[in-house]
Design a protein that fits this description.
Elements: E1 23-27, H1 29-32, E2 35-36, E3 39-40, H2 42-52, H3 58-72, E4 84-88
Antiparallel strand pairs: 1-4, 2-3
Length: about 90
């Protein structure tokens, strides 16, 4: 569990295989719900950026995702905070 902020919520655990070169990209809804008018950045754009950045180092992938979100949102700013983390297997 990443946060216990929602004490009344129920959580489940899962295991998944983790191999050399795998990555885990964690974002808050401020990334996927970043808006340009009524259009959201969305999960599809996020997935496409992650797929396009498969060969990048973790920090470079995070930077490319953030750059695309910033380009998407007009200069008047974001409505929510953004949190983005890329976890890479160091092997």
């Amino acid at each position: 569990m990443v946060s216990s902020l929602f004490g009344e919520s129920s959580w489940s655990a899962a295991r998944f295989p983790w191999e050399a070169g795998d990555r885990l990209v964690l974002v808050t809804d401020g990334v996927t719900e970043a808006r340009r008018g009524s259009e959201e950045f969305g999960e599809e754009r996020l997935r496409a950026r992650v797929a396009a950045g498969r060969s990048l180092a973790g920090s470079s992938l995070a930077g490319s995702i953030l750059a695309e979100v910033r380009e998407f949102v007009p200069r008047d700013g974001f409505e929510d905070d953004l949190t983005l983390m890329v976890v890479t297997d160091p092997r």
